[in-house]
Structure prediction request, 268 residues.
Amino acid sequence: MEMQSARSLAATPFYAEQADECALFAQAHAARLPLLIKGPTGCGKTRLVEHMAARLGRPLITVSCHDDLSAADLVGRHLISGGDTRWCDGPLTRAVREGAICYLDEVVEARKDTTVVLHPLADDRRMLPLERTGELIPAAPGFMLVISYNPGYQNLLKGLKPSTRQRFVALGLAYPAPEVERGIVAAESGCTAETAARLVHLAEALRRLTEQDLEESASTRLLVMAARLAVAGMPLQRAAEAAIVDALTDDPETVAALHEVLAAVLGP
Ligand SMILES: Nc1ncnc2c1ncn2[C@@H]1O[C@H](COP(=O)(O)OP(=O)(O)OP(=O)(O)O)[C@@H](O)[C@H]1O
Ligand SMILES: [Mg+2]
Prediction:
């Protein structure tokens, strides 16, 4: 792993490791391989990327993909200003030139034409072709392409093509083990160890219950939110109701079942 300077260490966002994902990230970066991170919402994908960008001392350029995002949004376009047209780099092109880490969040949402620009960057070529200007930009050392997606939302039509997936090293994240998650909840909210333990206990019960019924279950993010409400003075049961249970679903039957679990785990 590369050395960290004192400055980047001070600015490194907190990340509690689930397994060996930090080493995997660093080794993929050293080997100039792109990385695909998959996992449910709120399990730490974005935080891992922020943490590793700081540790590796690389700038981070994040793009949240949506169904209207085109190759031109990533690569850049000609802009007209005062009768002149000039080329304006998009975020991917900036990252390629600067040797930054480019993080494409929820990449399956993006329009299909984006894969055309990702493929030559994600394999041995490490090149970004700018069709509009005819430029072929070699990725600067330090550049890394990281994409993430949430398999739970994956629409069959929208899944990544094998020819795209197989250009990436894959890292699967899940919700962290209880002892790791307790540490995260306490560190991210400033709550007591006891509050963190009770919320993680609740999450385990909710996850057991909701595995079949809900697309997604109580995420680490929701636990942190509940803990912050508790730190702000809200009684824990009410905080968990507002931040976790009511956030998970609108279906009245499921809400009732979740409230029962909440009362059983956190109730007086
Ligand atoms: N391993 C972890 N270390 C530190 N904090 C974490 C970790 N996992 C989750 N968190 C906390 O949970 C929050 C949500 O995590 P993050 O934004 O990384 O989720 P995500 O997987 O990117 O979710 P989404 O798919 O919705 O974008 C973080 O802001 C942080 O407070
Ligand atoms: Mg994210």
